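Customer escalation, tier 2.

The customer says the design service returned an amino acid string that "doesn't look like it belongs to this structure." They asked us to rerun it and document both sides in this ticket. The original structure tokens are below, unchanged.
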């Protein structure tokens, strides 16, 4: 008898939650920045950050003081199917307006050009122009999945 009443209570509570619309998941929050530490093909260590600021941005920061990105050229992104994207360099956003000296080890790029959306299951390679040469950074599953997700998200303005 107690089991039958208990089962009816659970069914009743479940029905009440459904009818009054109590959310089953936590409320949505503002997108937190995503950060990773990666190495390029020359074993230079980079900090990769993806965040929202007047649109989605990708920032690369060299953790080696002798390696500096070129602040004027775009970032080339390619996948395993030979699809490619060119992301505009927006490194000038790294400093207040009117200041001309950019951080030597960081560059920032606009992710708006990441259309069509890259496949979530294919690795992506970043080709970053440096002051001398290029750095090639391979993104793994976690980073590719995040880029895929944000490419589908609307930008908060």
């Amino acid at each position: 008898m107690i089991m039958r009443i208990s089962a009816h209570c659970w069914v009743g509570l479940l029905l009440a939650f459904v009818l009054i619309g109590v959310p089953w998941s936590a409320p949505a929050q503002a997108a937190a920045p995503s950060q990773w530490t990666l190495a390029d093909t020359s074993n230079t260590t980079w900090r990769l950050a993806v965040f929202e600021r007047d649109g989605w941005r990708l920032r690369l920061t060299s953790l080696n003081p002798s390696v500096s990105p070129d602040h004027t050229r775009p970032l080339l992104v390619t996948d395993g199917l030979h699809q490619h994207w060119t992301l505009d360099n927006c490194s000038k956003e790294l400093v207040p307006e009117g200041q001309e000296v950019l951080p030597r080890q960081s560059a920032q790029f606009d992710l708006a050009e990441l259309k069509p959306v890259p496949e979530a299951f294919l690795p992506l390679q970043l080709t970053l122009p440096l002051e001398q040469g290029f750095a090639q950074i391979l993104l793994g599953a976690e980073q590719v999945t995040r880029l895929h997700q944000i490419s589908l998200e609307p930008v908060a303005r």
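Tier 2 assessment: The sequence is consistent with the input. Confidence is low (pLDDT under 50) at residues 1-30. The first strand starts at residue 34 and ends at 39. Sent an explanation to the customer and offered a walkthrough call.
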